[in-house]
Design brief:
The protein has 7 helices and 25 strands. It has 400 residues and is α/β, with parallel strands linked by helices. A hairpin with a 2-residue loop joins strand 15 and strand 16.
């Protein structure tokens, strides 16, 4: 087994990706990436191409050129028409900022959505409102990082669930409310760390139980009468029950971390993973990761966040899905390969460097098209230039 805990693994990984080892802490690297992720603040704006009213993640006072979903994804423009030559007399980050200020930006990262105009950092949602970072949902609203859900509201990190309200870290639940860290539960409320329970209320740590209230068994008739007497259709009563349940939870030992069906992992909320160190909210076939937050189905990743959906070999990336061998990218999605220092590259891009708001492109630098031979000759010169300016191996500065 690879010793992913060792500093040697970090250096080996970074060297394999072609970068110098960073002395910055994992927390600082994470902050720098998140500075580029406006996930939940939306603004009313106008598309700069079709002039229709739109919802945008960019505030109008930034004077950015913003296109609606239809215009940005359409064939009526090409991001390569805004290209510029690389200037070896200027730092790379300065040149990238100039390019970024000119190229039209996608109003929201909201791919293949239907009647879900107020969602961001999402894909394939239908009839959803104010869903952020959640994918493949239907009839959901006011939720964050919910996946494959239907009719849920006010949930955080919930997957494959239906008719859930105010739930956190729950999976495969039906008609469950005010619950946390529970799986395969139904027709229940106020659960914590429960598995496969049905018709339970205010319970902690139960497995395969039914008709329990505050961990005590009841008959079906008594259970229904008692739960009805709580009158939780009143907001005040619901808030009082929250306080009561929180006090009840403290009477039970809590597992140090929620790590389920995983091997050699440290962090919290890790499911079906292997060799994941200092990782949080990872699930679904994650393997050989370190300092990664919110990931699913990714292998070989270091210092990344909001990443997965069949990705591999990623370093210092966020908002990256279905990508291979990418580094220092924000929103790389749709089958990209071998791209570096790019923001919002989509739909099977390959061999890009320093590009922004580009799709279906190959062998481009600062959005300028090159031949394969030209690209491979120019890129090493740019890397040497960035090394001299102490830019190579660092994420985009926050001021960008």
């Amino acid at each position: 087994m690879r010793d992913i805990n060792s500093p040697e693994w970090e250096r080996e990984f970074v060297t394999k990706m072609g970068f110098p080892f960073s002395e910055l802490s994992a927390e600082e690297r994470h902050r720098r990436r998140l500075a580029y992720r406006n996930e939940r603040t939306l603004y009313q704006d106008v598309c700069d191409l079709c002039k229709k009213n739109i919802i945008s993640l960019y505030s109008p006072d930034k004077n950015a050129t913003v296109y609606c979903q239809t215009c940005w994804w359409g064939d009526g423009w090409d991001a390569r028409s805004y290209s510029q030559d690389y200037d070896f007399s200027k730092p790379f980050f300065e040149q990238f900022k100039e390019l970024q200020d000119r190229v039209p930006r996608l109003s929201l990262i909201n791919s293949k959505g239907e009647n879900s105009e107020y969602c961001n950092a999402t894909t394939e949602n239908r009839n959803c409102y104010l869903v952020f970072g959640g994918d493949y949902n239907e009839d959901c609203y006011d939720s964050v990082f919910n996946f494959h859900c239907k009719d849920v509201c006010d949930v955080y990190f919930v997957d494959n669930s239906t008719l859930c309200y105010e739930c956190i870290d729950c999976s495969k639940c039906y008609n469950v409310t005010y619950s946390q860290n529970s799986q395969n539960c139904s027709d229940s409320a106020f659960l914590f760390d429960c598995r496969s329970v049905k018709n339970c209320f205010g319970c902690v740590g139960l497995r395969n139980k039914e008709y329990h209230i505050f961990n005590e068994p009841h008959s079906k008739e008594d259970y229904e009468n008692i739960v009805t007497s709580f009158k939780l259709n009143s907001w005040n009563n619901a808030q009082e029950m929250k306080k009561r349940f929180n006090e009840f939870k403290l009477k039970f030992p809590h597992l140090y971390a929620n790590i389920v069906n995983s091997e050699n992992c440290t962090g919290d909320n890790i499911l079906n993973s292997k060799n994941c160190i200092n990782c949080f909210d990872t699930f679904d076939k994650c393997e050989d990761l370190k300092d990664v937050m919110l990931a699913g189905n990714i292998k070989d990743g270091y210092s990344c966040s909001h990443i997965g959906h069949n990705s591999e070999l990623c370093y210092e990336c966020f908002g990256t899905v279905s990508s291979y061998h990418c580094a220092f990218c924000a929103y790389s999605w749709g089958g990209n390969k071998n791209i570096y220092y790019c923001i919002n590259a989509a739909n099977s891009c390959e061999d890009l460097f320093g590009c922004t708001q580009i799709k279906k492109a190959k062998y481009c630098i600062l959005n300028k098209q090159y031949t394969k031979e030209e690209y491979e000759a120019l890129l090493p010169r740019i890397i040497d230039h960035m090394k001299k300016n102490n830019e190579w191996g660092h994420f985009f500065p926050m001021k960008n």
